[in-house]
Write a structure and sequence with these properties.
This protein is α+β, with helices and mostly antiparallel strands and about 325 residues long. It has three domains: about 10-215, Jelly Rolls; about 215-270; about 275-325, Arc Repressor Mutant, subunit A (Orthogonal Bundle), CATH 1.10.10.60. The chain has helices at about 10-20, 130-135, 140-150, 170-180, 185-215, 225-240, 245-255, 255-270, 270-290, 295-300, 305-320, 320-325, and strands at about 30, 35-45, 50-55, 60-65, 70-80, 85-90, 90-95, 100-105, 110-115, 120-130, 155-160, 165. Strands 1, 2, 3, 5, 8, 10, 11 and 12 form an eight-stranded antiparallel sheet that branches. A four-stranded antiparallel sheet has the order 4-9-6-7, with no helix packed on it. A hairpin with a 3-residue loop joins strand 1 and strand 2. The longest helix is centred in the middle third of the chain and has 30 residues, at about 185-215. The two termini are about 25 Å apart.
């Protein structure tokens, strides 16, 4: 998938999320000779557990531990840190991209190593969902059924191994969970409802992405829709500094979201976001080669909220970071 890059909306939401005070409790802080690891429980119930994590180390550091048996499936949202976060579970290396989320289960008695790079602040939010709850969601999904079967056999499993991009809508729900000030029954009901909405949004997003990339998704496009898709393409080309969602483009140009995704890909050979990203990277390459702008200046020139957002997008598209391009004279 990987077509959506971090935009202004998500960057602001992440800053808002971690700018909140500890109204939901006091964080636990674990220190050693090279840094700190901080965890804050935002919600704890029978079916769900929500935790926020932060860590920073002065030297490269490998955290090692053995897992207990767990009744939870984990939803991990990677919100800040290195471009790729790596771990090892029983010797099997895993990679997790920044601004993406993953759904997985780790079997008990697994040897886990998490690799932290020095002087990088890692931030992530994890939502733990009881395994029994997932059974209720799996009734109408073959992918979920296969995922659950592995878990029922106490085997490690991942639902979306490549991860899914964190959308502004998903980030909004995380913010609502973080900012909830209700208490007692009302708090339980609200948090559960938001987590359910998040799960449904994730599964719907994954389904739409599969449909958009499936050969079976090709369908007839009317002349009117072709004209609208051409307008979308011209808008994208003329507004490289702007970031937008499929929903926003759909409303702006009066075209169905599904037709926008599948029709654009059918007409122009790639998705809207990937097309926009390629154009931004083409401009970035030109600036890296012909201008004396710093990486930070290029990032802001192209509309990215931060140099790290630009670097992640550049590496996703080009395979290496912009600094590496300049350093190795690959231009």
């Amino acid at each position: 998938m990987g077509e959506i890059v971090p935009d202004h909306a998500i960057a602001r939401q992440i800053l808002d999320f971690f700018g909140e005070d500890h109204r939901n409790g006091v964080p636990e802080i674990f220190t050693n000779d090279v840094g700190t690891f901080e965890t804050l429980t935002l919600y704890k119930g029978d079916e769900f557990l929500v935790k926020e994590y932060k860590s920073t180390y002065d030297e490269d550091y490998t955290m090692k531990f053995c897992t207990d048996e767990s009744k939870y499936i984990e939803l991990a949202f990677f919100l800040d840190g290195s471009e790729v976060i790596r771990d090892s579970v029983n010797g099997r290396i895993g990679e997790y991209k920044l601004f993406h989320h993953y759904i997985y289960f780790t079997q008990g008695n697994s040897d886990v190593e998490i690799y932290f790079q020095k002087e990088i602040c890692y931030k992530n939010l994890d939502i733990y969902v009881a395994k029994d709850y997932f059974h209720q969601l799996a009734e109408n999904s073959d992918a979920l059924k296969d995922f659950i079967r592995k878990i029922d056999r106490e085997k490690s499993a991942s639902l979306f191994p490549e991860g899914l991009p964190i959308t502004p809508q998903m980030m909004s729900i995380l913010l609502e969970i973080k900012k909830c000030t209700l208490e007692g029954f009302y708090r339980d009901y609200y948090i559960k409802s938001r987590i359910l909405s998040l799960l449904l949004l994730i599964f719907e997003f994954a389904k739409s992405e599969e449909e958009a990339t499936s050969p079976k998704s090709k369908t007839s496009i009317s002349t009117t829709e072709i004209h609208k898709l051409m307008e979308v393409k011209e808008f994208v080309e003329g507004n490289l500094k702007s970031f937008y969602t499929i929903e926003q483009l759909s409303l702006k140009f009066g075209i169905n979201e599904f037709k926008l995704k599948t029709g654009f890909k059918e007409l122009f050979g790639e998705g809207v976001f990937h097309y926009a990203s390629k154009l931004r990277m083409k401009e970035a390459l030109y600036l890296l080669k012909n201008a004396d702008f710093s990486i930070k200046e290029i990032a802001y020139h192209l509309g990215y909220a931060s140099p790290s957002s630009f670097s992640v997008a550049f590496k996703n598209e080009m395979g290496v970071g912009p600094s590496y391009y300049r350093k190795k004279n690959l231009l």
